[in-house]
């Protein structure tokens, strides 16, 4: 499995937004008002993935947690099961792709409502869709971080060779 590519996700957001915009130009009148509940849901998912990413990063790199008082007696964290890391990487990739689709849907929704902000219901739906779009972008960023945290670290000798090669 390869890591998610940002350009692919941006293209996915744009394509889904254009499709949503085209569909809503004729179908918006028959839709009920948008619920605001997607915003906190996506933000909680982003928070969970960010915390998981920090925990995985700390445990893969074997760094103790940062407290107020450094404790030299505190042992390094236990290593993670490789299958658990692979599952978390798959979760990060799936979250990035699904959040990109959600961002595209709500971005297209907001784009189709820009012209009718003087009415109350479209204005409410515009703000909800804009907030949901931003929450989905935050989830994409958290998913990227989780994917990054699940990468296998380079050996110290390999990092030194890379540094010397970059100086030459």
Describe the model.
The chain is mainly α and 168 residues long. It has 5 helices and no strands. It has helices at residues 6-27, 38-61, 82-113, 120-149, 156-167. Helix 1 runs parallel beside helix 3 (82-113), helix 2 packs parallel to helix 4 and helix 3 (82-113) runs antiparallel to helix 4. The mean pLDDT is 86.
Q: What is the overall silhouette?
A: elongated
Rg over C-alpha atoms, rounded to the nearest angstrom: 21 Å
Q: In sequence order, what are the helices and strands, one letter per element? A: HHHHH
Contiguous runs where pLDDT drops below 50 for at least 5 residues: none
Q: Helical percent range?
A: over 70%
Rounded mean pLDDT score: 86
Can you summarize the main beta sheet? none
Helix and strand content put the structural class at mainly alpha
Beta strand count: 0
Strand content: under 5%
Number of helices: 5
Cα(first) to Cα(last) distance is: 33 Å
